[in-house]
Design goal:
Distance between the termini: 19 Å
Number of domains: 1
Order of helices and strands: EHHEEEEEHHH
Shape: globular
Number of strands: 6
Structural class: alpha/beta
CATH superfamily: Mannitol-specific EII, Chain A
Strand content: 15-25%
CATH topology: Mannitol-specific EII, Chain A
Oligomer: single chain
Helix content: 40-55%
Largest sheet: 6 strands, mixed
CATH architecture: 3-Layer(aba) Sandwich
Number of helices: 5
Length: 154
């Protein structure tokens, strides 16, 4: 699975302004609503409910919030780079500045897991994360995220 199947230019937020985890999830839900056709509140509630199960802050400044919503018919990805790192209850207790959000239909069992694995592999690559943090625009971020997996090996 390539991330270009999940991401659109509208799904990349190069300068997300948020003071905390809840606000970051609200802002990403606001960005996701027009892409998915779902209500912002439904997306926010699903993401928040998933966070209650355990943090999606995976460490090294990265969070991968994800949720399943029954109204969706396909997977959606959104990426946000925060202007200021925030506390996300990450497993390494470090603040988060890169968020990749995955929204999936209830029926997307294997596809959802494959997408999460692909996102996780990409964001474990420190060179890619440094480039994402230094990218000047959403277009540049999208290009980095959508490079074929084989060309991202470090």
């Amino acid at each position: 699975m390539e991330l270009s199947d999940l991401l659109t230019p509208e799904g990349v937020v190069a300068h997300l302004k948020a003071a905390n985890k809840k606000q970051a999830l609200q802002e990403i839900a606001r960005a996701a609503a027009p892409l998915t056709g779902l209500e912002e509140r439904a997306i926010f509630d699903a993401l928040l409910e998933r966070e209650r199960l355990g943090t999606t802050g995976v460490g090294l400044g990265i969070a991968i919030p994800h949720a399943k919503l029954p109204e969706l018919t396909r997977l959606y990805g959104l990426f946000a780079r925060l202007d200021q790192p925030i506390d996300f209850d990450a497993i390494d207790e470090q603040p988060v500045d890169l968020m990749f959000v995955l929204l999936a239909p209830e029926s997307a069992g294997a596809d959802h897991l494959k997408a999460l694995a692909r996102i996780s592999r990409l964001l474990r690559n420190q060179a890619v994360c440094e480039k994402l943090r230094g990218a000047e625009s959403g277009v540049a971020i999208l290009a980095l995220l959508c490079e074929p997996e084989s060309s991202q090996a470090a």
